[in-house]
Amino acid sequence: MSHPAWSEIVASPQGVIAPSMLKCDFAGLDREIADLEAAGAKMLHWDVMDGHFVPNLSYGAMVIEAARKRTGLFFDAHLMMAEPQRYLDSFLRAGCDAITVHVEAVPDPTQVLKEIREAGRAAGLALNPGTPISAVTPFLPLCDLVLVMSVQPGFGGQAFRPDVLPKVSALRKQAAPETVISIDGGIGRTTIGPAAQAGARLFVVGSEIFDRDDYATAMAELDALAAG
User: Fold this and answer.
1) What domains, with CATH codes, occur in the chain?
2) Helix, strand, or coil here: 13?
3) What is the pTM of this model?
């Protein structure tokens, strides 16, 4: 299977919707992936939680590797882990196309970001709602994407925090034009528009897709709202 290149993923002027697999039905993972492909998804977002960095435990590289055999969609892995560098090789082997680590977990992420890029993958750096952008600005030249959390990471279904939108705008101004600003947490029909206006172009969406009966309709509505 050929995986879409990062440049193809970010070329869309209105941005890209990334369904968050944390909300999928894991008992029917094959069906969920097929339904998302049919609905027009270009990428899948994998939330990896270790029970230490965040107070929740999700899945690891083995699940992602199994899913990799089922689809050629772009895999965007978000490592909410205390020591992501220890497990980086396993996520690279699992077939992740982009890997994002948290600046709160790795205050100097220089080496891990370089390793991700050297492996030919897109490198991302995430920051929590309470973390100032000054924590990530020194590392922006090493980032293909910056993920702004619009909820405190750990659990799906939380309410969007509009106070993070100025951070999105500031990062959009400071980062290189080719650096993608992503947003994750509470993104849905009422929040994707303001997030797009602030400068986000990659939208991680959970409940607003998986709680709907028709994924294609949900994705189309979100695409239209992101485009303004």
Assistant:
1) 6-227 (3.20.20.70)
2) coil
3) 0.94
